[in-house]
Amino acid sequence: MTGRLRPTPPFPRRAVTVAAATAVCASLLAGCGSLTGTSGTKDPVTVMTWAPEGTSATNMPGMPAMARAYARWVNENGGINGHELKVITCNEHNDTVSAGRCARRAVAEEVAAVVGSYSQHGRAFMSPLESEGIPYIGGYGVTDEEFTSPLSYPVNGGHATLIAGSGRQLAAQCERVTLVRPDTINGDQMPSLISAGLAEGDREEASDVRAPEDASEYKRQSELALELLEVEDRGTEGACVTAALGDRTDTFFDSFRRLRESGEPIRLASVLGSVQQSLVDRTGGSGSPFEGASVTGWYPAADDPAWDTMRAVVREHAFSDNRVDVSDPGVQTTWIAYTVLHRLIESIHDGPVTGRSLRQALDSGIGADGIDTGGLTPKLSWNYQDVLGASDYPRIANTMVSFQEVRDGRLVASRDGFVNVAKTLERRYTYAQSRAAEE
């Protein structure tokens, strides 16, 4: 697969609402049904989306907001194959107790699936879902359980592909790299992932700087990042700093910029979710300190025509909701996850839509042939022969990433199509094993 996308004409800015919705349904989601607004000829399908909101660490309010907008859209257009879509949302609060509470609520509400959600607490939420056979479709991809549980169906390769892909991207530009990452269990995997990517370009392994996820400043970590780059002895040429701290990435780079105000610039890098278009806009656009930064993502750049459908739906059903940013990878992941759900419900035809029937469709029905997401990902299949199969990530079905950069204040593709990091992920396991043996 080349990852090249066939352009589609953009939606006219002044098109009437119903015309836009009709075009979207007709072009990509034929199961929307009639435009009478009458759904409910069959039993409704209830699902849940959860994400943290209003916390001191990473927040993803756009994900449940996108889920609600998706439901408004399909229900206004007859539901999905005659089923009304009901979306329950839950604030996961970025803590284990709330994550488990959301999962238990999903069980109590008898949802058919949990779709397009975010949580760092896989152990807390996956066990209740597994005990009731509830599939977890299109999680954001920050926990081990999302890539090991047989009931998880991820639409991206999680942070593993982003960080490994970042190493691949930086290997072409950087002689030495310092990684600033969360001081968490998930963060502990990042150094070997980025170093495996760097090794493919014959670069030295990345230096590792741990940082709290909820700090108000990162002066000490900025100083350590510079020290590890040996800027005083080796200069700034070929030196790169990459940070993946979620919502606190901006805070780190602000501390780093203050430390470097009088020095030669150092190339910055990150991954989507830690840096996105709204952050570039907020920090000065083309005059932002992120101008020229390398950014690794899961999906095509936000200006790609493949996102036209989502943009049209957001304009109509979430126009005044500032939580829904179409360039936010959380929002994008939720959109793709609901697209997968939509295809699954269509494929079940007149049968009941339950956790069991969705799993059957995923494992041996439409999922076996690969689910088309309109060019936003490769076709998705979680069959044994289609997943990565690496011992650490046996459920990864999508090992593609995109290389992007900030150019003239916009996040744009720095190369066409997707980059496959499957071999990098496999190399990471060997790399980590050899490093452990050396230590």
How would you sum up this structure, described in words?
- The chain is α/β, with parallel strands linked by helices and 439 residues long.
- It has two domains: 17-157 and 303-398, Response regulator (Rossmann fold), CATH 3.40.50; 159-297 and 402-438, Rossmann fold.
- The protein contains 15 helices and 13 strands.
- Strands 6, 7, 8, 9, 10, 11, 12 and 13 form an eight-stranded mixed beta sheet that branches.
- α6 (190-199) links the parallel β6 (176-182) and β7 (207-211).
- It is globular and about 70 Å long.
Brief summary:
The chain has about 450 residues and is α/β, with parallel strands linked by helices. Helices cover about 40% and strands about 15% of the residues. The chain has 2 domains: about 15-155 and about 305-400, Response regulator (Rossmann fold), CATH 3.40.50.2300; about 160-295 and about 400-439, Response regulator (Rossmann fold, 3-Layer(aba) Sandwich), CATH 3.40.50.2300.
